[in-house]
């Protein structure tokens, strides 16, 4: 298996633009997680899905952030409009069950100018 | 609210030394605990997962222990090598059907040749 796949790996955009991050979980995994990592706050869970259903989105910072999982093999995290304080590395992870070992993708480094 | 602490934030040791990385958490009602490794600019790699009913797990030169009652875990690295240089993160999964990981901020380890 190729592991968790994320795209793009790097994204540079201007404030106010829409940003869409993509994730393909490991085949067969039924839990998917979106995290954000910054120097100041470390690694924070934004939202996670079980069987394509959002379970906990309490970590989503505000309404500018939204996430979808239309099927078991694809998820998106969208920021609209983006702001400089959204600059961070965004990770997607998947697992076989929400309490099981999590496997992380390589991350998307987002820079909002 | 679960809080995970890893102290110190950084550690530098000479090659060949055995070392211990510490992790503490505030709520002992956990489902499991995971240790991850993160190389600069990369995603997280799962090293060891300890279920709440277990006391330790071993993989090669790594040994992780868990003391739920005191809210502590340690990652023991035997005969450290320069290739072990990375950031090591501890994460705990809360109990319940919708458990999620809470991460510490990590310990950045440098092993000097």
Radius of gyration of chain A: 13 Å
Sheet bearing the most strands of chain B, described? Answer: 6 strands, mixed
What global shape of chain A is seen?
A: globular
How many strand elements of chain A?
Answer: 11
How many helices of chain A does DSSP assign? 0
Mean pLDDT value of chain A: 93
What share of residues are in beta strands of chain A?
over 45%
Number of strands of chain B: 11
Principal-axes geometry of chain B comes out as globular
Cα-based radius of gyration of chain B, to the nearest Å: 14 Å
Terminal residue distance of chain B: 41 Å
Helix content of chain A: under 10%
Largest interface: A-B, 21 and 23 residues
Helix percent of chain B reads under 10%
Top keywords for this entry?
heterodimer, A: 113 residues, mainly beta, 7-stranded mixed β-sheet, 4-stranded antiparallel β-sheet, B: 113 residues, 6-stranded mixed β-sheet
Q: What's this, in brief?
A:
Chain A is mainly β. Helices cover 0% and strands 55% of the residues of chain A.
Task: Characterize the structure shown.
The complex is a heterodimer of chains A (113) and B (113). By secondary structure, chain A is mainly β. In chain A, 0% of the residues lie in helices and 55% in strands. Chain A has strands at 5-7, 10-13, 19-24, 31-38, 42-50, 53-56, 65-71, 74-79, 88-95, 103-104, 108-112. Chain A is globular and about 35 Å long. With 113 residues, chain B is an all-beta fold. In chain B, 0% of the residues lie in helices and 58% in strands. Chain B has no helices and 11 strands. Chain B has strands at 4-5, 10-14, 19-25, 30-38, 44-51, 56-59, 62-67, 72-77, 86-94, 101-103, 107-112. In chain B, a hairpin with a 2-residue loop joins strand 6 (56-59) and strand 7 (62-67). The A-B interface holds A 4, 33, 42-45, 48, 50, 55-56, 91, 93, 98-99, 101-107 and B 31-32, 34, 36, 42-46, 49, 89, 91, 93, 97-106.
């Amino acid at each position: 298996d190729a592991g968790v796949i994320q795209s793009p790996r790097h994204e540079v955009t201007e404030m106010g633009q829409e940003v869409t991050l993509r994730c393909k979980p490991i085949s067969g995994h039924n839990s998917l997680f979106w995290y954000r990592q910054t120097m100041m706050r470390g690694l924070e869970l934004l939202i996670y899905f079980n069987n394509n259903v959002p379970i906990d989105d309490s970590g989503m910072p505000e309404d500018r952030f939204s996430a979808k999982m239309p099927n078991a093999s694809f998820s998106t995290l969208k920021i609209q409009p983006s702001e400089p304080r959204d600059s961070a590395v965004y990770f997607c992870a998947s697992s076989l069950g929400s309490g099981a070992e999590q496997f992380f993708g390589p991350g998307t480094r987002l820079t909002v100018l | 609210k679960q809080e995970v602490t890893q102290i110190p934030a950084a550690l530098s040791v000479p090659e060949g030394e055995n070392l211990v990385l510490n992790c503490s958490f505030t709520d002992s009602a956990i489902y499991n605990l995971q240790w991850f490794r993160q190389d600069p600019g990369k995603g997280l790699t799962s090293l060891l997962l300890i279920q709440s009913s277990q006391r330790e797990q071993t993989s090669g030169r790594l040994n992780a222990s868990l003391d739920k009652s005191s809210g502590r875990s340690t990652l023991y690295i035997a005969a450290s090598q320069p290739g072990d240089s990375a950031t090591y993160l501890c994460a705990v999964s809360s109990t319940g059907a919708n458990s999620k990981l809470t991460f510490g901020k990590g310990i950045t380890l440098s092993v000097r040749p």
